[in-house]
């Protein structure tokens, strides 16, 4: 059994930052629309592939990020307006529908990009490693850590300091009453769905540069995101942050100390939390 | 004028409203009375366009326009406001956010945050608190203030004095009277008969999903036979 060192701790934190980016979009959709969007992982992978293609075509990481976010937000728009709107109010049908979309997107990905593994190229400035406190640590992963913090801050400001954010929070609390107050809740749903999808796309590009992209990467990130949201409580941004930290760090600990039990180290504590707080750490009853 | 005619509303297969009808002229207060389970809240929800219940028959006209079939937010845009049963505040929003977030862009006149705080000074003191940190009376005031911010001409109030201490009941009554004086049309569901008689111009009694008795509030208070028969009041 190995002990945990700074390097592994940082690995856990940077993975947590990526998980937060992906799971924050997931939890917003879950909280507001009351559905587990099982296509969220597929949207992540789609974002990664599109980002990869855009990075190769333009040579710019920033453009790759923007292209991925925009196109996955549009995929979210199509999913919401083209499919989900026909099964509104039927939660199980919506979930099954998103599962079907996940399968279709994955097969399309396989058709377009094949079964190979891709790595999104990172800009020159983020290549190499920094040396501090006796470790060499990849600059890019530190960038991901910073990005996670920035995304948290921006989302926090959006939710707590803007009218749209207040409408989203009110919608998470009680969508029906919000509608009775004259708010077109469908429009709030749509904006939130597109925002959540864009965050999945962002995660795909950013994650695709250090976790690589391959068929199946979507379900891995989906399972981790699900754990994050269940631990944190649906619709809660601080919950997603704490959940991501726990899952990221437990994943590192598990891989280093109990490699045979890596999944159990994440899902064991999750089950324990659910036993005492069935709605997650920050979850509230509807 | 609010005109509800022959409304049949269902919760799943449960037939709750059996042809309920009522008319409410503008500027008046109509109290809807009836024992629990007779369909009062179902009628309020049907008018507001909240689903369930499913409305399968009848019509709901407000100022001559049919509301049935419109989504709730469209009904709210036609200046119908609701103070729902149980308050239904947003736990994540502060008192101030309850008032600012819902202010529609079209509502240029009428209620402002400043006016609401003048009307409900207790809320001004607690504007940074969240809904669940308020007392029962403050919650009810916030639910009323929130509805006013949507700039209603017709206000549906579902048991606004429910669960309140007597002193708070008096305050809510005073508020309803002031709103009535300000010209609002109010449909009031009220368990407390004496509140209802004091606040309303007319009363309608709902029994198993039908309006079975209508009278001026001033007369209803003396009609002991009817009160005993439909409300169990002695």
UniProtKB/TrEMBL annotation, chain A:
Classify the protein's membrane topology as the record does: Multi-pass membrane protein
For molecular function, the Gene Ontology terms on record are: transmembrane transporter activity
Query: Could you tell me the Gene Ontology terms of the biological process aspect for this record?
Result: amino acid transport
Where is it found, in Gene Ontology cellular component terms? Answer: plasma membrane
Q: Which InterPro entries match?
A: ABC_transp_permease, BCAA_transport_permease
Please list every transmembrane segment annotated in the UniProt record, as residue ranges.
12-37, 49-74, 95-114, 140-159, 188-215, 221-249, 261-280
This protein's major location comes to membrane
Q: Quick one: signal sequence residues?
A: none
Does the keyword Membrane belong to this entry?
yes
Q: Where in the cell is it found?
A: Cell membrane
Q: Which UniProt keywords apply?
A: Amino-acid transport, Cell membrane, Membrane, Transmembrane, Transmembrane helix, Transport
Q: Please report which protein family the annotation says this sequence is part of.
A: Belongs to the binding-protein-dependent transport system permease family. LivHM subfamily.
PANTHER family on file: ABC TRANSPORTER ATP-BINDING PROTEIN, BRANCHED-CHAIN AMINO ACID TRANSPORT SYSTEM PERMEASE PROTEIN LIVH
Name by which UniProt lists this protein: Branched-chain amino acid ABC transporter permease
Question: Could you tell me which species this protein originates from?
Answer: Muricoccus nepalensis
TrEMBL record, chain B:
The protein's UniProt keywords, in alphabetical order, are: Amino-acid transport, ATP-binding, Nucleotide-binding, Transport
A GO molecular function assigned to this protein is: ATP binding
Key word Nucleotide-binding present in the record? yes
Q: Does the keyword Nucleotide-binding apply?
A: yes
Domain ABC transporter: start-end pairs: 2-233
Q: Which GO terms describe its biological process?
A: L-amino acid transport
> What Pfam families does the record point to?
ABC_tran
Top-level taxon of origin: Bacteria
Which positions are tagged coiled coil?
none
Q: Which family does it belong to?
A: Belongs to the ABC transporter superfamily.
What name has this protein been given in UniProt?
A: ABC transporter ATP-binding protein
Q: What is the lineage of its organism?
A: Bacteria, Pseudomonadati, Pseudomonadota, Alphaproteobacteria, Acetobacterales
């Amino acid at each position: 059994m190995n002990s945990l060192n700074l390097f592994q701790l940082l690995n856990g934190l940077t993975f947590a930052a990526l998980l937060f980016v992906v799971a924050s979009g997931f939890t917003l959709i879950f909280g507001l629309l009351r559905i587990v969007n099982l296509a969220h992982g597929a949207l992540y992978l789609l974002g990664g592939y599109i980002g990869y293609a855009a990075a190769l075509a333009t040579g710019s990481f920033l453009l790759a990020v923007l292209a991925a976010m925009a196109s996955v937000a549009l995929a979210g728009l199509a999913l919401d307006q083209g499919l989900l709107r026909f099964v509104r109010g039927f939660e199980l049908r919506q979930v099954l529908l998103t599962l079907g979309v996940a399968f279709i997107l994955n097969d399309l990905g396989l058709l377009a990009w094949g079964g190979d593994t891709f790595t999104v190229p990172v800009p020159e400035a983020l290549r190499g490693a920094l040396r501090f406190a006796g470790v060499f640590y990849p600059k890019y992963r530190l960038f991901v850590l910073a990005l996670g913090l920035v995304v948290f801050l921006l989302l926090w400001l959006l939710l707590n300091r803007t009218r749209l954010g207040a409408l989203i929070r009110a919608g998470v609390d009680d969508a029906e009453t919000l509608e009775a107050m004259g708010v077109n809740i469908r429009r709030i749903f749509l904006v939130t769905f597109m925002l959540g999808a864009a965050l999945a796309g962002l995660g795909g590009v950013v994650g695709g540069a250090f976790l690589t992209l391959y068929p199946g990467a979507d379900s891995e990130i989906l399972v981790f995101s699900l754990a994050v949201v269940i631990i944190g409580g649906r619709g809660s941004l601080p919950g997603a942050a704490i959940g991501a930290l726990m899952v990221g760090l437990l994943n590192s600990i598990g891989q280093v100390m109990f490699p045979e039990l890596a999944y159990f180290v994440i899902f064991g504590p999750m089950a324990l939390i659910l036993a005492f707080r069935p709605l997650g750490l920050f979850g509230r009853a509807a | 004028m609010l005109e509800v005619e022959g409304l049949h509303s269902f919760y799943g297969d449960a037939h709750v409203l059996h042809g309920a009808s009522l008319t409410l002229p503008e500027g008046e207060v109509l109290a809807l009375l009836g024992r629990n389970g007779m369909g009062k809240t179902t009628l309020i929800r049907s008018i507001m366009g909240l689903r369930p219940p499913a409305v399968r028959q009848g019509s709901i006209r407000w100022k001559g326009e049919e509301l049935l079939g419109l989504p709730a937010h469209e009904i709210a845009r036609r200046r119908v406001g609701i103070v729902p049963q149980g308050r239904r505040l947003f736990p994540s929003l502060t008192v101030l956010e309850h008032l600012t977030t819902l202010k529609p862009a079209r509502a240029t006149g009428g209620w402002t945050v400043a006016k609401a705080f003048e009307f409900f000074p207790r809320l001004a003191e607690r504007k940074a608190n969240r809904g669940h940190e308020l007392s029962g009376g403050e919650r009810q005031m916030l639910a009323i203030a929130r509805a006013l911010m949507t700039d209603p001409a017709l206000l549906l109030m579902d048991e606004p004095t429910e669960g309140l201490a007597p002193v708070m009941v008096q305050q809510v009554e005073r508020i309803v009277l002031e709103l009535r004086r300000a010209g609002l049309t109010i449909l009031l569901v009220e368990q407390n008969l004496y509140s209802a008689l004091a606040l309303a111009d007319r009363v309608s009694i709902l029994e198993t999903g039908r309006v079975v008795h209508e009278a001026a509030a001033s007369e209803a208070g003396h009609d002991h036979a009817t009160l005993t028969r439909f409300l169990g009041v002695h």
